[in-house]
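Raw record, unedited: Extracellular solute-binding protein
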Amino acid sequence: MKRRDFLWGTSTLAISGLFAGCSSQEEASLRIRLLKDSIPAQLLNEFRQKFKRKGELDLMVEAQLISLFSSLQEKPKPQNWWSRLPLLSGGEKTSSIANLVTLGDYWLNAAIEQKLIQPLDTEQLKKWEELPLQYQRLVRRNQQGNIDLKGEVWGAPYRWGTTMIVYNQDKFKAEGLNPPQDWNDLWQERLQNFISLPDQPREVIGLTLKKINPQNSYNTQQLDKIPQLKSELKALDRQVKFYSNDNYLQPLILGDTWLAVGWSTDILPVIQRYSNMIGAVIPQSGTSLWADLWVRPTKANDDFSLAESWIDFGWQPDIAVLFSRFGKAASPIFAGESLAELPKIIRDKKLIFPSPEIYKRSDFILPLSAKAQQQYLNLWREIRFQGLGLGDRKGGGE
């Protein structure tokens, strides 16, 4: 699955020397590879002001989650002896290994299994215990990358979001359709051939499970125990104009489609720009959740103090407020809270914070057993290519 593994265009931006210490003897370096636009600029300024240690912050920004995962797989470039001499190296850094890297929760299983990252020492994270239990459990894994409540901690969640329904309000009004509220609205006859869905089996099968019964989980292990699932998926497939993980918002804006399912960080900026045309809703029956994490590469240096300061900084309540106010996603510090419980300044963020009732019915997409994975794949292939011997009649991703 490739959640948001695109962000219009690609770029790598290095921001070096954002702040430096007065004494070279006391200088320290914190090197971070992060997802573009995942940290509001206001927080970088705050961190600069509150960072107590003298040193240098080096941010390397990547446009895609898959690029960040690939960076963990890269082997460090061998260093020539002259590269360690300041006068000959031009002052360039001798190592490109980051102290922390952004990773989507879906990639955590593979990163652990491939030994690309190392566990975090939660005793060094002062704010760890203030993180909601659901997020603590999300990153406790065994050596194979599967959920294990007694396992080590392999990541530090710093933001989360949802899968949403986004729709063209003008088209809905013109057709006399009520705004969508839940997954069952995707099966409306009038929407046939005007819907786009992610080309992701876990997302599409998961939302169909929720449509059948909100108590169903995106992580259902035995799909064969839900007899109506296949017929519901076939009916939904007949509604779909195309499947796509990335090119689903432009057709919606142009009116080629009237409704799409996608990820909150893609959708919220579009709503902000086209507020009179585009609307969105978090389905009442519950939805899938995702989280972005800070992970520590296997070959990162032993000094975790600066990285710990960065992680703890993001979990401070006042910083979590700023993050949720200016960012495209929410801080996990406020996950599951009602709008009334939130600080006043972020109570208007209804599309970032689902109600506690919806949140309780929602799931992170977790690793499945090999048998269950095969069930999802077999069902997906049957639905996506039903009645066809070759090819894909509705486009989409891989």
